[in-house]
Structures are given as C-alpha cells and as structure tokens.
Amino acid sequence: GGPIAARMLCIDTKGPGDRLNLTYFLPTKLIHGRGAMEQGRDDIAALGGCALIMTGRSSAKRSGALADATSLLTQLGIRYKIFDEIGANPLLSVCERAGRLARGIGADFLLAIGGGSVLDASKAAAIYAANEDIAGEEIYKLSFSHPALPIVAVGITAGTGSEVTPYAVLTVDR
Known about the structure:
The chain is of the alpha/beta class. It is built from six helices and seven strands. Strands 2-3-1-7-6-4-5 form a seven-stranded mixed β-sheet, with helices on both faces. Strand 6 (109-114), helix 6 and strand 7 (151-155) form a beta-alpha-beta unit. The radius of gyration is 15 Å and the shape is globular.
C-alpha cells in the first residue's frame, strides 16, 4: 500500500452466521472471524505502547467493538485515548485535529473502529500525526516527510473496502 494504506484489519464477527475464519495478507493483513481482535493481539502489541482510538459517535460503543478494543489494549499495557468525533463524510479539519491529538499523546498507531468514514478519516489522521509540517489541504500533495502511523482498522459495517485501500474520501471545509 501507499503512504495511507491501513497496515492491519481486525474484524471481530460475533453473529450466528459466523462460518468463515481466515487470515490474509495483501500487504494489509486481514483477520476475519470470531475472536479476530484477540487473534491479532501480537500484531497490535508490536505496534507500540500508545494508541489513538478513532470512532464515530456511537456505533463502536453500541456494537461492543470499542469495549473489546479497550479491554485488549489494557491487557497489553497499551495506553490509549479515544477520539469519537468522526461523522459521515469526515471533514478534513476533524482528521487534522485527530492527527494533532495523536501526535500530542505520543501515539505509535491509530486504532479505527467503524465504517468507511472512520477508516478513511484514520488514514488522513495517521498522516497528520506523523507530519507536523503539513496542514489542511497540503495532505493532497501526497508527498510527506514521514510515513503515516500504522493503523489497526476494525470495520463494523459492510462497505467499500476502505480497510484494504490507500484511498480516503474526505470533505474539505469551506
């Protein structure tokens, strides 16, 4: 993947129709099935000691995925802060604010929980976090001093496959 590709995806399916368990690398590592987050614990632990968790306003909580993620991070001794301000069609300014927060807390990686909007926003935030010298629309130059922070993407909706692409759909504030 390019500079904004997610580095890993954990999908923790809990439904009664859960029949497919797999691990796939493309170069995004895809882990799917019941207990997927637990299966990715060694990969997550290797990313560092501090994470910024990015979510929307409620679906990560309601689905139980946020509780699963915070429980795992706590077990691994990874500090975290939750940024739950991502809405539909994420604003570039919100992505930049998340990136500044990640940099401010010394995040080693981002853990994004949600649908395409949250996953797309995390890609931009990962760039802003690693590159203090860029702001606003400068992100569209696609030339950065430092690679984006790694992203653990926990998709909780069926969508466009944001977790395995380097692309992000963002809204420019005007």
